[in-house]
Write a structure and sequence with these properties.
The complex is a heterotrimer of chains A (383), B (324) and C (349). With 324 residues, chain B is mainly α. Chain B contains 15 helices and no strands. The chains are: A alpha/beta (383), B mainly alpha (324), C alpha/beta (349).
């Protein structure tokens, strides 16, 4: 199976007042075409930073210091970390989309739902929209009407737009008050697309919802709108950063079911970031476990729940509360990433730590078939 | 940071009072150090701070730099703010050895006027700001915390005061009570407090809903304690920023009113008043530049210093930027 | 056995104002006629989704909100409660009723009596970042209840603060620090210390583990259990995390739109939820076992607004088994077997 996204030795550091935070220290990950990969870890382990690094959106004072992120496109592998901003802007929203944790924070409160969802169409699908508008214009021109002159002007504008959407002439035209009514046609075409995609999100009465403002929506509805924005241009990769954490359990079940259906329809791969092991079991094909800036284990979902190899993974699975049994905890706390432990970062809390663990950092190796672990306990990881 | 020789006390298990104090203020010291580092990083903040410090030093050293009642004065001075003059000459004279900045109309010594004017400027700024803060905070806190009818009444009252024209009020006070800087300060105070009220009320409305305020009530804190201990300390920072910016603009307003003849009397050491006396000489060409340029520079840099300091405060105290 | 804490017909409505003159146009019926009994030393779990009123209920029980109607009895003898309900039903607004209520009914306490009652009941909030004053030192945060309630002074207070911090797993070194210097789990421990410093008997835990990590969650839950055994505390554990509630509570109540729809001992409720909403709720929990993936969507639709609840049983628009009577009449909470209460027309009639 082909890899859609390959992360190799990714390093991200944050230069703060307190010191240099080594948020991600050599992350290796591959996401295969069409699969759903769950990225599990606690707060501060670096999973959100990893996803932001893929999109090269790491906020200051963070810097991507090393490694590579390869995206498989039709023209071969693209190294995301070395691309210019203009190229990246084309990729974001079109090839890779992201949805965030708080749907209310992801929606701009002063724009309607239709305006926000159609933004993604305006950015990436302008030529198609122009073609459709032109087809509609031809239709209008064939009828006899006193507005023929206006239609002819509009046709000229749209022809220019389909050739060069960002020309300066068009930009000036779009600012002039009455003249810029030509954009209404474009908005109407985009509006049709919006209603279609809202329907795909199983939103009841999409025409009415499209005219609403975000504050009128409930949490579950808002998250569906955000997913609609992300999937509007049918990206190959969808990154979901804890999209259901803030939602109620029943709404979460609805959103998870929706994601399951959508990935069938849109055939996109999903990188699902969460700290909830139950959600991962429901939704994902493979699971990657992160701890303190490293991916410590990657395996198939059945395998990882049945046979966790890394001590952290097994401790995590044991700490899930089970009725009647005592709560198993993991001793200690997540280490400060400003001065992380030497060697394996989990060694201060690991019950099976050896001398070697506090001296040398292990590497991520394939220990069993398609089961990668980063731990000295398994041969092949210590070199 | 142990004190030399106190180690033995630790070993004996006796904690000295001073050590306890040191441990107690340690987190505050850390906070202050962090704030200072942020000031150091921004050059404009440094400039603002140094200007204000410079003027503060001048104000403190005024009796030394420009001693009152010098030997050459013709008028007897009882009030140090009365500017001395050498003779009763109506035209200003340029800077000379005896008068480093020259003299203004009626031969008032500009150097003395500018130095003692610094103290006046600080007085005006600080009195009016602190007075406005006192009134504004009280009304704003009560309105914001209790809400409801009290809030409505107080806010409508504040709106009325907002609409009041300050210039007219100053003129009315001067007409009634005579021309003095105190009347100008009173006028500025009376129309200055509403902006603080609005600000603090907004902040309190926000802080009031935080969990820790409710937790304090759950413990049984009285309203007074909740306000003083929990709500105010967390809402005061935007006020500090606005207050420091205000000091500059208040000095400007006071100078403008003095220029119009509503403020300090003619002999008084106040920058605005000095410029006021140079009205007749401004258009007579460049010969008398020192009468208005020098006090003007003082006003300009003083206000600039406070503005930059206010910006610096805002940058340092901005909660979103605070946590590194 | 007499209940330690009992609420009778507790209601909390929030007024909705509208229009130019801000007239009251409606009520948000956050808690609508909830009556339950909590025994001493038990952990009572209260679950439901956002908007169901569980947090409001928890806060109303400890008088952070003033109840719109109803009674709250804190360690009151049974005969007094009967007396009060008798006097009320005979609708005499007698002085005797007022006197009794002033002495025993928490919802009628005022002033000094209310303040000293607060010693006995405390709350731990969900988000430790916002529940601790960012400008106060830990020693002041934890020591404040002692100051306000005038319990201990000076050196004794300091000793008590250190003692309680040690009990929750922190040390004396942490006294002179600000909350932002701690991790989430530690902050929650500070909040717990603050709640326990006056030696309360009843603690409302408002989703205390929702904002912390999985590994810290287990540590905190262990701490809660140890403290309960050691200090004989009674907990009201409000949460939307059903798996956590299952492990720590003795009995669990399920709320929907301000009403209590089911109440039972934990094991029985989780094994066999009778109310259709409770059933759908438990079926929605994601199970951390990939072999047990569910295929059917348990519950469709969204929670209606608490300002205009549907007539009759509040769940009827989303209920697949709704009958005609469900649209007209609200079901009462009845004991269907051995302490398992359900409010549903399908069961219990």
């Amino acid at each position: 199976m082909k890899n859609l996204l390959t992360l190799k030795d990714l390093v991200v550091k944050f230069y703060t007042y307190e010191g240099v935070v080594e948020a991600i220290d050599g992350v290796n990950l591959n996401l295969r075409d069409g699969e759903t990969l769950g990225l599990v870890g606690e707060t501060g382990c670096g999973k959100s930073v990893t996803s932001l690094a893929v999109l090269v959106l790491v906020p200051a004072p963070g810097k991507i210091e090393g490694g590579s992120a390869l995206l498989a496109t039709k023209k071969g592998n693209l190294e995301l970390l070395s691309q210019k901003e203009a190229v990246l802007q084309k990729i974001r929203g079109d090839d890779i989309s992201m949805i965030f944790q708080d749907p209310r924070a992801s929606l701009n409160p002063v724009f309607t739902v239709a305006e926000q969802v159609s933004e993604v169409f305006f950015l990436h699908r302008k030529e198609e929209l122009c073609k459709r508008v032109l087809a509609g214009l031809e239709n209008d021109l064939s009828k006899r009407s006193w507005k023929r002159l206006i239609y002819k002007l509009e046709r000229n504008i749209y022809k220019k737009m389909s050739e060069n959407p960002n020309s300066w002439r068009l930009r000036i035209l779009s600012k002039i008050p009455i003249v810029n009514r030509y954009q209404l046609r474009l908005k109407k075409e985009a509006g049709k697309d919006v209603v279609k995609i809202l329907g795909l999100m199983k939103i009841p009465d999409p025409e009415r919802v499209a005219e609403m403002y975000p504050h009128e929506l409930s949490g579950g509805m808002a998250q569906r709108i955000v997913i609609a924005m992300a999937l509007g241009c049918n990206p190959g990769l969808l990154i979901a950063d804890e999209p259901t954490t803030n939602l109620d359990v029943t709404i979460q079940a609805q959103i998870l079911a929706l994601i399951r259906e959508l990935r069938e329809e849109f055939k996109s791969s999903v990188l699902y970031i969460t700290h909830d092991l139950g959600v991962v079991a429901e939704l994902c094909d493979r699971v990657a476990v992160m701890y303190a800036g490293n991916v410590v284990e990657i395996a198939d979902v059945m395998e990882i729940y049945k046979n966790p190899l890394h001590p952290y993974t097994s401790a995590l699975l044991e700490s899930i509360p089970r009725p009647g049994k005592e709560f198993k905890t993991i001793e200690g706390e997540v280490p400060s990433l400003i001065s992380p432990p030497i060697g394996c970062r989990f060694n201060p809390r690991c019950t099976k730590a050896t001398e070697l663990c506090s001296q040398q950092k292990p590497t991520l190796e394939e220990v069993e078939k398609d089961h990668f672990v980063m731990c000295h306990l398994y041969p092949g990881s210590s070199k | 940071m142990l004190i030399l020789g106190s180690g033995w006390r630790d070993q004996m298990g006796v904690k000295s009072r001073f050590q306890e104090f040191k441990v107690g203020i340690d987190p505050t010291v850390k906070e202050i150090k962090f704030m200072l580092s942020r000031v150091r990083k921004s050059p404009l903040s440094l400039i603002g701070t140094s200007i204000v410090v410079f003027y503060a030093v001048i104000a403190l050293l005024a009796p030394v730099l420009a001693p009152p009642n010098p030997s050459w004065t013709v008028t007897q001075i009882s009030d140090p703010f009365a500017i001395p003059r050498e003779k009763y000459q109506s035209t200003p004279s340029p800077p000379s050895e005896l008068h480093p900045f020259g003299t203004a109309e009626w031969n008032y010594d500009l150097f003395y006027g500018c130095i003692w004017g610094t103290i006046t400027a600080f007085r005006v700024g600080l009195y009016v700001v602190f007075g406005s803060l006192a009134i504004g905070l009280f009304i704003g806190v009560v309105a914001g915390y209790y809400g409801g009818v009290i809030d409505e009444l107080m806010m409508r009252f504040t709106d009325v005061i907002f609409a009041f024209p300050g210039l007219i009020l100053a003129m009315a006070l001067v007409t009634a009570f005579g021309r003095s800087l105190d009347n100008v300060m009173l006028a500025l105070l009376l129309i200055g407090w509403p902006s603080y009220t609005r600000l603090i009320r907004g902040e309190i409305l926000r802080i009031k809903q935080e969990d820790y305020v409710e937790a304090a009530k759950a413990v049984g804190c009285s309203d007074f304690r909740v306000i003083i201990r929990h709500v105010l300390p967390n809402s005061i920072y935007p006020i500090v920023v606005v207050a420091s910016l205000d000091i500059g603009s208040l000095v400007l307003s006071a100078a403008a009113l003095s220029f119009l003849g509503l403020g300090a009397p003619e002999y008084f050491a106040d920058w605005g008043q000095l410029i006021s006396t140079s009205q007749n000489w401004m258009l007579k060409g460049w010969d008398y530049w020192y009468t208005f340029i020098i006090p003007g520079v003082f006003i300009f840099t003083f206000v600039l210093g406070w503005n930059l300091l206010g910006d610096a405060f805002r940058d340092i105290l901005d909660p979103t930027l605070r946590r590194r | 056995m007499s209940a330690f804490i009992e609420t009778v017909g507790l209601k909390k409505y929030f007024a909705v104002t509208g229009g130019v003159f801000r007239r009251k146009v409606g009520d948000v019926r956050a808690v609508d006629d909830v009556g339950l009994r909590m025994m001493k030393g038990e952990c009572f779990g209260l679950v439901g989704e956002s908007g169901c009123g569980k947090t409001t209920f928890g806060k109303t029980v400890i008088r952070l909100h003033k109840p719109t109607a109803g009674h709250i009895y804190f360690n009151a003898p049974d005969d007094i409660k009967e007396e009060i309900s008798k006097l009320e039903s005979s609708s005499q607004n007698s002085n005797e009723l007022k006197e009794l209520r002033k002495r025993y009914d928490l919802s009628a306490f005022k002033g000094q009596r209310l303040k000293s009652a607060r010693k006995q009941m405390q709350i731990v909030y969900q988000d430790p970042t916002t529940s601790l004053n960012p400008r106060m030192l830990i020693k002041d945060i934890v020591g404040e209840p002692l100051i306000v309630q005038k319990l201990l002074k000076g050196e004794e207070r300091r000793k008590r603060v250190i003692q309680i911090l040690n009990r929750v797993g922190l040390t004396e070194r942490h006294l002179y620090r600000y909350p932002h210097e701690f991790s989430g789990g530690q902050r929650q421990r500070i909040a717990i210390a603050r709640a326990l410093v006056t030696n309360p008997e009843f603690v409302v835990l408002d989703e205390p583990t929702s904002s912390v990590d999985v590994s810290v969650r287990a540590q905190l839950l262990n701490l809660f259990q140890d403290l309960q055994k050691e200090l004989g505390l009674t907990y009201l554990f409000v949460s939307h995390d059903l798996s956590v509630v299952e492990c720590i509570s003795h009995r669990v109540g399920v709320m929907y739109l301000g009403k209590l729809v089911e109440l039972a001992p934990t094991a029985e409720l989780y094994r066999e939820p009778l109310h259709p909403y409770a059933h759908a709720l438990f079926a929605s929990i994601p199970i951390p076992d990939p072999t047990k993936r569910r295929r059917r969507l348990p519950l469709k639709g969204e929670v209606p607004s608490p300002v205009n609840p549907p007539p009759g049983c509040r769940f009827n628009p989303r209920c697949e088994k709704a009958l005609e009577i469900c649209r007209r009449e609200e079901p009462k909470l009845v004991d269907v077997r051995n302490g398992h209460f359900v409010a549903c027309h399908l069961i219990g009639s």
